[in-house]
């Protein structure tokens, strides 16, 4: 059924799947953070919204655009150009900045612009470096063997791990602050008990 939906309504199918997998990635990231005092449902909903409403339509268009790159009669050469465009244009200048910027805006914690700048300053290069360890080889296989309407679907197979990493990175500083606050509140409670 899902395969039929991908063929008949590829954008809707990709939005559902991408949103779901961004949510799953965030859920895994939260469970991997033992210092977190409770499960943050709004955070997961932001991940689902970003994946389904923002990333999936843009990713869908991007893969169709890449399919038009045909500078050669060789499928292998065309695949190389597509991987290069994906990894040297989309990842560093669209995908990674868009994720950290949009997710920070969705958090709606002010001041927003300095928070976006901090996220990009802190996370852009490490995320891009880790991106290049994972995605070029996968995308080479994806662009060479997978039909264009299934490419985002193929990306989503490995994205569950990538989405976990992105969510962990995005929220790492907040998690440390929460841990410090929890430690501080425990110390304060302990001090209050001693004075009682």
Automatic annotation (TrEMBL):
Family (UniProt): Belongs to the peroxisomal membrane protein PXMP2/4 family.
Protein's recorded name: Protein SYM1
UniProt-annotated location(s): Membrane
Keyword Transmembrane in annotation: yes
Organism: Diutina rugosa
Record membrane topology: Multi-pass membrane protein
Superkingdom of source: Eukaryota
GO cellular component terms listed in the entry, alphabetical order: membrane; mitochondrion
Keyword Secreted listed: no
């Amino acid at each position: 059924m899902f395969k039929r939906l991908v063929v008949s309504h590829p954008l809707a199918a990709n939005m559902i799947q991408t949103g779901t997998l961004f949510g799953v990635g965030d859920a895994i990231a939260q469970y991997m953070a033992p210092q977190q005092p409770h499960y943050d449902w709004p955070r997961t909903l932001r991940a689902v919204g970003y994946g389904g409403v923002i990333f999936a339509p843009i990713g869908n268009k991007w893969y169709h655009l890449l399919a038009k790159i045909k500078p050669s009669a060789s499928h292998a050469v065309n695949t190389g150009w597509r991987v290069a465009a994906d990894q040297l244009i989309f990842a560093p200048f669209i995908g990674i900045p868009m994720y950290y910027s949009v997710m920070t805006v969705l958090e709606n914690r002010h001041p927003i612009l300095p928070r976006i700048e901090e996220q990009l300053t802190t996370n852009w290069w490490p995320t891009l470096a880790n991106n290049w360890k994972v995605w070029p080889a996968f995308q080479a296989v994806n662009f060479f063997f997978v039909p264009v309407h299934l490419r985002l679907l193929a990306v989503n197979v490995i994205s569950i791990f990538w989405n976990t990493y992105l969510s962990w990175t995005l929220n790492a500083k907040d998690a440390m602050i929460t841990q410090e606050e929890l430690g501080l509140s425990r110390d304060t409670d302990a001090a209050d008990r001693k004075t009682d």
